[in-house]
C-alpha cells in the first residue's frame, strides 16, 4: 500500500515594518468564536495611564489625613484604578429596614414585667413567677452567703450548748414577761398577716402603675416565699425540740419561721428604701422574734439562725432584682423613624 503524500506549506515572510513605526500586537481570530469585541490593546510604551475616576464620594470612616485621593502617595486610593480598590459597607444610619419587620429583642434579657402598652401587667407577672423564683433561688448560692451561713451555724451550735439551757430556765420562771403585748406582737410574724400585706402592696403597685413599688413587691414576695421554703425544709430535717409542748407537740423548733420571714421582709425594705425605713423594720423583726422566746415556743438559737437566714435571703433576692431593674440605666439608642443613633440615659425618681 502506497504511503500518503504530505504537502508542506511555507510560511509567508513577515511584512516589512516602515521606518518610524513600532511593532504592535494584532488579534488573530479563532474559528468558532465571536470576534465582534476586539481584545484590549496594551498602551504604547512610555504613554501616561488614564486618570482615575475622582467622582467617588470620600469615605466617612477614615480620618481626613488619609481619606484624600488627591494625595499621589496614598496607599488607600492608588492612582492606577487597575491595581485594586477598597469598598466600605453603608453605615447603620443608611441601612433601610422593612417597615413591617418586628423590633429586635435580646434573648438573654430578663423577662419584662411591663406590657406592650407600657403598663404593668398581672398576667405577665403570673407567667414569669416560676422563672423569677428560680433565678432568685440561684442568686442565694454564692461563696459570700455560704461563709455567712456557715458562721451562723457555728454560732448556733455555741448558743445551743451554752445559752439555750439558761434562757429556757429563765423563761420557765418568768413566762410571758411582756404579757398581752407578746400575744399581739407575735401576729406580725404570722403568715396570716404577711400574705395580706404582700398582696395588698402588689395590688397597690398595679393600681398606681408605680414601677419601684411593683419591683419592691415582687422582690418581697420572692424573698418571703424562699425563706418560708428553706425554713420549713430545715425544720423537717433537724426536727429539734421546743421549750414547750403546747405548739406542734414541742417539735420542729429550729429555725424560727417568724424570725426568718420577718427579717427577710426587713432586708428587702432596707435594700429598696434605705436605712431610714430599714432600721425600724429590723427593730420590728427583732421584737417579733423575741416574743417567740418570751412565749417559750423557740430557743434563742432558733431565733438567731432564723434571723440570719432571713437577712441573707432578703439581701440576695433584692440585689438580683435591683440589678435586673436598676434605677439608672445607660444604653444605646436608635430612632426607628429617623435612623438616628445615640446614647440613652434613663433615671427613676
Q: What strand order characterises the main sheet? A: 1-2
Model regions low in confidence, pLDDT < 50 over at least 5 residues: 4-9, 20-27, 59-63, 65-69, 74-98, 100-110
- Beta strand %: under 5%
* Residue-averaged pLDDT: 76
Number of helices: 9
Percent of residues in helices: 40-55%
List the helices and strands and how they pair.
Layout: H1 122-138, H2 143-162, H3 164-173, H4 180-186, H5 191-208, H6 211-238, H7 257-273, H8 275-294, H9 300-324, E1 328-334, E2 341-347
Antiparallel strand pairs: 1-2
Helix pairs in contact: 1-6, 2-9, 4-8, 5-6, 6-7, 6-9, 7-8, 7-9
Kindly describe this structure.
The chain is mostly helical and 349 residues long. The chain has a domain at 124-326. Helices cover 46% and strands 4% of the residues. It is built from nine helices and two strands, in the order αααααααααββ. The chain has helices at 122-138, 143-162, 164-173, 180-186, 191-208, 211-238, 257-273, 275-294, 300-324, and strands spanning 328-334, 341-347. It has a two-stranded antiparallel ribbon with strand order 1-2. Strand 1 and strand 2 form a beta hairpin. Helix 7 (257-273) packs antiparallel against helix 8. The chain is elongated. It starts with 121 loop residues before the first helix and ends with a strand.
Amino acid at each position: 500500500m502506497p504511503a500518503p503524500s504530505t504537502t508542506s506549506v511555507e510560511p509567508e515572510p513577515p511584512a516589512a515594518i516602515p521606518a518610524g513605526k513600532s511593532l504592535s500586537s494584532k488579534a488573530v481570530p479563532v474559528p468558532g468564536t465571536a470576534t465582534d469585541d476586539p481584545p484590549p490593546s496594551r498602551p504604547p510604551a512610555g504613554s501616561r495611564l488614564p486618570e482615575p475616576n475622582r467622582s467617588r464620594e470620600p469615605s466617612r470612616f477614615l480620618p481626613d489625613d488619609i481619606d484624600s485621593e488627591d494625595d499621589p502617595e496614598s496607599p488607600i486610593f492608588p492612582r492606577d484604578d487597575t491595581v485594586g480598590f477598597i469598598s466600605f459597607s453603608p453605615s447603620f444610619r443608611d441601612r433601610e429596614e422593612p417597615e413591617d419587620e418586628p423590633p429586635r429583642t435580646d434573648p438573654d434579657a430578663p423577662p419584662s414585667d411591663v406590657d406592650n402598652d407600657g403598663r404593668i401587667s398581672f398576667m405577665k407577672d403570673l407567667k414569669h413567677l416560676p422563672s423569677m423564683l428560680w433565678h432568685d433561688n440561684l442568686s442565694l448560692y454564692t461563696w459570700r452567703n455560704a461563709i455567712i451561713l456557715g458562721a451562723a451555724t457555728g454560732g448556733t451550735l455555741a448558743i445551743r450548748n451554752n445559752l439555750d439551757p439558761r434562757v429556757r430556765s429563765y423563761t420557765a420562771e418568768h413566762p410571758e414577761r411582756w404579757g398581752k403585748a407578746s400575744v399581739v406582737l407575735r401576729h406580725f410574724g404570722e403568715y396570716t398577716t404577711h400574705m395580706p400585706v404582700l398582696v395588698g402592696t402588689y395590688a397597690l403597685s398595679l393600681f398606681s402603675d408605680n414601677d419601684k413599688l411593683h419591683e419592691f413587691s415582687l422582690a418581697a414576695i420572692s424573698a418571703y416565699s424562699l425563706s418560708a421554703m428553706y425554713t420549713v425544709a430545715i425544720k423537717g430535717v433537724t426536727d429539734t425540740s421546743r421549750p414547750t409542748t403546747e405548739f406542734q407537740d414541742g417539735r420542729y423548733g429550729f429555725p424560727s419561721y417568724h424570725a426568718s420571714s420577718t427579717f427577710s421582709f426587713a432586708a428587702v425594705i432596707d435594700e429598696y428604701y434605705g436605712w431610714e425605713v430599714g432600721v425600724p423594720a429590723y427593730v420590728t423583726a427583732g421584737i417579733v422574734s423575741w416574743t417567740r422566746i418570751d412565749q417559750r415556743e423557740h430557743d434563742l438559737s432558733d431565733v438567731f439562725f432564723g434571723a440570719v437566714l432571713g437577712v441573707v435571703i432578703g439581701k440576695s433576692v433584692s440585689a438580683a432584682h435591683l440589678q435586673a431593674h436598676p434605677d439608672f440605666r445607660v444604653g444605646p439608642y436608635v430612632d426607628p423613624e429617623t435612623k438616628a443613633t445615640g446614647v440613652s440615659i434613663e433615671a427613676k425618681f
